[in-house]
Design a protein that fits this description.
It is built from 8 helices and 6 strands; from the N terminus they run H-H-E-H-E-H-H-E-E-H-E-H-E-H. The strands form 2 sheets. Strands 3-2-5-6 form a 4-stranded parallel β-sheet. Strand 5, helix 7 and strand 6 form a beta-alpha-beta unit. The longest helix has 16 residues.
């Protein structure tokens, strides 16, 4: 496994690399990449961290599993490579963004522009076998990403945590609510979006909070590349 991670995260996450759970995880993941089709590409496993430095985080959006379809996952939660068909959850995120802030629905599925503004788009599990949802769960990734969330909660202040769905709600229990702003709703999946995700206004609520704290709000509009 390529463990290259940005300098800003090293002091917070590199200690995890020496723990026994991570060594077992690394052995499992290395074998999976050798023997199976695994997503995202190995060099993008830590893309969420490398695109959003620790000191620049304003918002955390927590996903569960990378997309398991061909060439979908790109290392950022809920994001897909450009020119890929949108998965249903991403489509619903865009619908809510349109209703919430009247932002046109983009033809661009890559959420890197958000990440570069301080939105950490992190999945609880960072890898998955092709066409097998959840295939890399309970192998150690959850402990690693718990360590990341704990570090943010303890060492940063006034971060917006957007938790969609019961899984994210449970994973967010370790966040210090006195220091941070937590937005909880149903998951954007078609199975649950109508049970509280739609009309939850996470994007406007995030920007309202950031502005109150004196921070620059997120520009949620994803402008499509020309051509």
């Amino acid at each position: 496994m390529n463990k290259n991670i940005s300098d800003s995260w090293k002091e917070h996450l590199c200690p995890e690399f020496d723990k026994s759970y991570f060594k077992q995880l690394e052995e499992f993941v290395d074998t999976e990449y050798q023997e199976n089709e695994v997503y995202p590409p190995e060099e993008l496993i830590f893309r969420a961290f490398n695109t959003c430095p620790f000191e620049d985080i304003k918002v955390v959006i927590l996903g569960q599993d990378p997309y398991h379809g061909t060439n979908q996952a790109n290392g950022l939660a809920f994001s897909v490579n450009d020119k890929m068909r949108f998965p249903p959850s991403l489509r619903n995120i865009y619908k809510e963004l349109n209703k919430d802030l009247n932002i046109p629905i983009s033809s661009k599925g890559n959420l890197e522009d958000w990440a570069k503004q301080g939105v950490l788009l992190i999945n609880a599990t960072l890898t998955v076998r092709a066409n097998e949802a959840g295939s890399h769960q309970n192998k150690g990734w959850e402990e690693f990403t718990d360590a990341a969330i704990k570090a943010i909660s303890e060492k940063r202040e006034k971060i917006v945590f957007i938790l969609w769905g019961a899984y994210a709600h449970k994973k967010g229990l370790q966040i210090d609510r006195k220091k941070h702003f937590i937005l909880k709703s149903a998951h954007p999946s078609p199975l649950s979006a109508h049970r509280g995700f739609f009309e939850s206004k996470p994007f406007s609520q995030t920007n309202t909070y950031l502005k109150k704290q004196g921070f620059e709000p997120i520009n949620w509009e994803l402008k499509s590349d020309e051509g």
